[in-house]
Specification:
The chain is α/β, with parallel strands linked by helices and 412 residues long. The protein has helices at residues 5-10, 37-50, 60-79, 94-109, 128-137, 154-161, 183-192, 212-215, 240-245, 280-296, 298-317, 348-357, 370-377, 393-410, and strands at residues 18-19, 22-23, 25-26, 88-91, 115-119, 140-144, 167-171, 196-200, 219-223, 234-238, 256-259, 264-266, 322-325, 338-343, 360-361, 363-365, 382-386. α2 packs antiparallel against α10. The structure holds ligand C6P.
């Protein structure tokens, strides 16, 4: 079913904003999404009517806050098709979720000489924690190559699996290329080779249907702020058996069952991993975001973005001085609405500045993926436009008009 974009736009107060005297055209949802009034109101209602700490008191509003927090996990678990709410650990963001795995699971399971396998299209969040772990343990960090069409090179992947890595960590969808990886197949191959699998879902969960049980990954990381929810909250999904076997990363209130002078025992899942007062309003906001996306239907969300992506790729392909870095128009089915590009003779930051002056928000830079942007794409920076449920074709037209304006300005 096609999304009713005009109706959706009415839910996003920020879309009425002007930027540099022009109607805001927000094409940077891969960095963070805008928030609908349903999310804003849910957070506001929490603060106005039942703000209280969770798990700690038996009075009514504390119970209501606790119920909201727990229900948020249940709803998120259902949204990504986890078996149980207790498989969801709330953290600050995708970055923290991956670090939780590298610091807890990694510390206990990676030894000197072990291999850790990641891909060359990873965000720094899925590179640096593994570098730190490899360095600490004397382990080897290997990289899966990409094909010229900017997909995972599956032959290289199979070759690299022969060194029997202990863990394989890869992104479900690239924040630079838009490429959607076959997470299910990659997980199966990794499991067959005896590896544990972590999937970085920061870019996939907001835009495509995700089923962690079908993928069968052991860990899956996501951020609320990219999927209409507030920032400062994200989640680590992990299979219950993995979480049971892992040690907590932080010690403190709530994560314990009992505390003696010299030792403590841990609380049950998922609380064992959530020390101290949590981001309660964040969980309440994320619950509202999940409800909003669920109502739209993730198949419909993806369809809408594919239509926009097809349109943008078509229009950009008609401009001879623009180069798109990522899978082309024939690959739209397996692609996000994330389009990185360069304009011949125009620095990406200059391009972004011209678009800004026209009210169009895009991002330029290395997009926290330096090994990909610098070594594989071969540029110091790229411009990137990214779409979401509230974008429409005329906004892409405005962006492309501004691209030609930038070309004219800098070609003089
Ligand atoms: N990418 C972008 O503009 P955090 O910051 O922890 O919420 O998300 C990190 C992250 C991890 N993996 C992928 C694939 C991502 O895209 C991101 C965030 C933003 O592309 C900010 S750099």
């Amino acid at each position: 079913m096609a999304l009713d974009v005009e109706k959706i736009r009415k839910d996003f107060p920020i879309l009425k904003t002007q930027m540099n005297g022009k109607q805001l055209v927000y094409l940077d949802s891969a960095a963070t999404s805008q928030k609908p009034k349903q999310v804003i109101n849910a957070i506001s209602r929490y603060y106005k009517t039942y703000n209280a700490n969770i798990h700690r008191a038996i009075y009514k509003i504390s119970e209501e806050a606790t119920e909201g927090y727990i229900d948020s996990k249940e709803k998120l678990a259902k949204f990504i098709h986890a078996k149980k709410g207790l498989e969801i650990i709330y953290v600050r963001n995708t970055t923290e979720a991956i670090n939780l795995v590298s610091l807890s699971w990694g510390n206990d399971n990676i030894k000197q000489g072990d291999h850790i396998l990641i891909s060359k299209m990873e965000h720094h969040s899925n590179i640096v924690p593994w570098q730190m772990l490899a360095k600490k343990k004397g382990a080897m960090l290997d990289y899966i190559e990409l094909t010229p069409s900017m997909h995972i090179d599956m032959e290289d992947y199979k070759r690299k699996l022969q060194s029997r890595p202990k863990i394989v960590a890869f992104t479900h969808a690239s924040n630079v290329l838009g490429t959607i990886n076959d997470a299910k197949l990659m997980t199966k191959l990794a499991h067959d080779a005896g590896a544990v699998v972590l999937v970085d879902g920061a870019q996939s969960v907001p835009h495509i249907p995700v089923n962690v049980q079908e993928i069968d990954c052991d860990f899956f990381a996501l951020s609320s702020h990219k999927m209409l929810g507030p920032s400062g909250i994200g989640a680590l999904y992990a299979k219950e058996a993995m979480l049971d076997a892992m040690n907590p990363l932080f010690g403190g209130g709530d994560m314990i069952r009992s505390v003696d002078l010299q030792q403590s025992t841990w609380n049950e899942l998922p609380w064992k991993f959530e020390a101290g007062t949590q981001n309660i309003e964040g969980a309440i906001g994320l619950r509202a975001a999940v409800k909003y996306l669920k109502k739209l239907g993730m198949e419909n969300v993806h369809e809408h973005e594919k239509t926009l992506t097809r349109y943008a790729l078509q229009r950009l392909s008609e401009i001879d001085y623009v180069k798109v870095h990522g899978p082309g128009i024939n690959d739209v089915e397996k692609r996000l609405g994330v389009i990185s590009f360069t304009i011949q003779g125009v620095h990406p930051h200059d391009a972004a500045a011209v678009l800004d002056s026209e009210g169009v928000a895009i991002r330029s830079g290395h997009h926290c993926a330096m090994p990909l942007v610098r070594n594989i794409i071969g540029q110091p920076a790229v411009s990137r436009m990214s779409f979401y449920i509230y974008n429409r074709e005329e906004e892409i037209d405005k962006a492309i008009d501004a691209v030609s304006k930038a070309k004219k300005m800098f070609s003089k």
